Amino acid sequence: MRRFLGPLADPFGALAAERGQLFPWVPVFLSLGIGPWFALRVEPGPVAYLSAGALALAGLMLWRRGAERWQIPGAALMLVAAGFLLAGHRANSVAAPVLDFRYYGSIEGRIVAIDRSFSDETRLTLDDVVLERVAPDRTPALVRVALHGKQGFVAPEPGLRVILSGHLSPPEGPVEPGGFDFQRLAWFARLGAVGYTRSPVLALKPAGEGAGGLGIHRLRMRLSASIRERIEGQSGALAAALMTGDRSGIAAATNDAMRGSNLSHLISISGLHMGLLTGFVFMALRHGLSLVPPVALRMNVKKISAAVALLAAAFYLALSGMNVATIRAFLMVAVMLFAVLLDRRAMTLRSVAIAAVLILAAEPESLIEPGFQMSFGATTALVAVFGLAGRWQARVPKALVPVATLLLSSFVAGLATAPIAAAHFNRVAEYGLLANLVAVPLTGFVVMPAGVVAALLAPLGLEAPALWALDLGCRGILATAHWVAGLEGAVFAVPAPPPEALPLMGLGALAALLARRAVRTGGAVAVLAALATWSVEDRPALLVSADGELIGLMTEEGRALSKPKGAGFVAKSWLEDDGDLSPQESAYVRSGLFGTKGALTATIGATPVFHFTGKAAPEAAQAACVKGTVVILAGIWSGGTVTCDLYDAARLGETGALAVREGPQGIAVETAREVAGERLWNQRPERGAGKRLALSRPAE
Prior knowledge:
Layout: H1 2-5, H2 11-17, H3 26-39, H4 46-65, H5 68-93, E1 103-116, E2 122-131, E3 142-147, E4 161-169, H6 182-188, E5 191-197, E6 202-205, H7 215-230, H8 233-244, H9 252-260, H10 271-290, H11 293-298, H12 301-319, H13 324-341, H14 349-362, H15 370-388, H16 390-395, H17 401-425, E7 427-429, H18 432-457, H19 464-485, E8 491-493, H20 501-514, H21 518-535, E9 542-544, E10 551-555, E11 558-561, H22 568-577, H23 584-588, E12 594-596, E13 599-604, E14 607-612, H24 617-624, E15 630-633, E16 645-647, H25 649-655, E17 658-663, E18 666-671, H26 672-676
Parallel strand pairs: 3-5, 14-15, 15-16
Antiparallel strand pairs: 1-2, 1-4, 2-3, 4-5, 4-6, 7-8, 9-10, 9-17, 10-11, 12-13, 13-14, 17-18
Helix pairs in contact: 2-5, 3-5, 3-14, 4-5, 7-8, 8-19, 9-19, 10-12, 10-13, 10-18, 12-13, 13-14, 13-15, 15-17, 15-20, 17-18, 18-19, 20-21
C-alpha cells in the first residue's frame, strides 16, 4: 500500500526530499492567498490582516528554523498569508474617488489611452480630470468617455488636453449575481467614472505641453497612425496592433472574426509576439555578425545578439502598453536571454514561476483576469509538455521538426487555454487549430520580420518593400480569420461555469503538470470534477437588470428578453452566459413573456412575476402588487403599503441585478449585492453624499 500511495504515504517527508524542485509551486501558493481574498464577501479588517501577518511570520520561522520535514509546509503557509496581505495592500493602495451620482456637464482632462467601446466607437481615457461643480477630492482620478455623434475636430493622442460636454456614471456592478464585476476591474484601474458624449471633443492644450510620462505613449500612437496611413483598412489596423499594441483601429467585425477563429491572441501582444520579435532580432544579428570573420573570431556573437535582443524586447514592452501578457512575455524572454548570457539553460518552469511571482507581487488582481490565466496557462503547459517531448523530437526527421513543433504547440496551447476562454467568453472556436496553423507561421515568418525591417529602414526612407510584406502578411491573417470563422459550426457557445469550477480545474491541471506520481492522478481527478460541476450548472429562471429596464425569462427556446434593443451589453452578457449566441432581437421574439409593451408578466413555478416600464409603470404596479406576487418596477414606487415582493428603482439601486431561481420551497431571489458582498470597489456612499447634479440615462 505504501508503495502504491508513493508520496501520499509520507507527504511531509516527500516534500522535504523534493525541495530543490518545488520553486514552480511558489506562485501557486501565493495565488491560494490572493484568490480567497477576492472571494470574500466582507472587506477584511485589521484583525484579519494581523492574523495573516502572524501566520506569515509563523510560516517564515518554520521555513528557516523548523525541522526539515516542516520547512516546506512553513514556506507554503508563509506564501499563502503573503498573498492575502499583498491583495489587501494593493486594493487599498490604488484607492481613488469614485463618482457617486450621474453627472452631465463639462469634462476636462488629459488623454492617457485610446481604445474602442462596446458599440465600436472611439473611447478616450482621461486623467487630471476637472468636472464642473465637483470638488477635487471627489473627482475621479481617471474617467472613460465614448465618442458618439459628429467628431473629427481634433486628432486624439496621449498627452492632448481636451474638453467636452458629456454624461458620466459610476462604474456599474455585475449584470447578474456572480457575473463579471466591472466595478472591481475599474477600482484597480483607478477608473472612477464611465460615460459618453454626443458633442464635439475640443483641444485645450497640445500634447507636447505637460505630457509628463506619456512620451512613449505618444510615440506609440504616432507609429500606429503612421502604419495605418501607409497600410489601408483593417490590414493596417492589424499591423498597428501587432507592432505597437494599439487596437483602437480594430473594428468590431474584425474582432468577431478573430475570436471566432481563435486568433484573437494575435491582436493582444503577448508571448508569441515577444518571442517572434526577439527571436528574429537574435537570429538575424547572430547570423549577420557570424558573416564578419574579424567579429566572429574575436567576440562572442551569441551573447552580443542576446544583449541586443533584450534591449529590443524592453523597447517593445514599453511601446506596447505594458499589459500583463506583455510583461509576462518580457520577463520570460529576459530570463531566457540572461540564461544565454550566463551560459545556463534558458526555458524552464522556474523561469515561468519567476515571471508569475513578479506579476502577482506587483498586481495581485491579475490572478482573476483572463489575460494572466490564459498567458500562464499556455506557457506552463508548453514548457512542461516540450520538456517531456524532448526524446520524441529527437526521433522526428529534421525536415519535419518545424511542422511537428507548430502542430504540438498549437494543440497544447489551445487545449490549455480553451477552458479559460470558454469560462470568460462563453465560446469555443471549433477550428482554432486550423486557423493557427496558417496564421502563426504568417506572423512569425512574414509579419514580425517585416515590421522589424521596416522600423530599421524607415529613417533611410527605404521601408516601402517591408511595409508591402507587412501588409501582405496581415491580409493573409485576416483572410484566414474570416474564412475559418465563417465555416459552419466554427463557434459553439458554452454556458458560464459555477464559481468553483475554474479554480478547481486550474489547481488540478497544475498538480497534473507539476507534481509527481499519485498527486498527478489527484490533479486529473480534480479537473474531471470541475468539468462535472460545469456540466450540471443550472442557469437562473429569470434575470433582472440593475435598473429594472430589462428582464430575461428562461424558456425551452432559450432566454426570452423583454425588449429588442437597448441595454445591449446586459442582454448580450446574459445570453452568452446561457451559452446562447443569438442576437437580442431573436431573443425578444421568443414566447414566455406575456402582455403588452411596458407591462409584461410571467410565471415561475406558481409565482406570478410582473414587469412594468414607462411612464404608466408606477400606476400599473399598484394594481399588480398583491400578496404572493413579484413586481419589477423600472421606476419609483408611489403607492401606499407594499404587499408584494417589490423591486422598484430605489430597491434595485441597493440590490443590483437580480437572479430568480425556482426551488422546492418556491422561488428564491438572489441579488448581485449579496453575491459580491461589501468590498472597497462597491461601497455605497453615505446617505446624502451622492447628491445628483444632473440626471442622464446610463453611460454607454
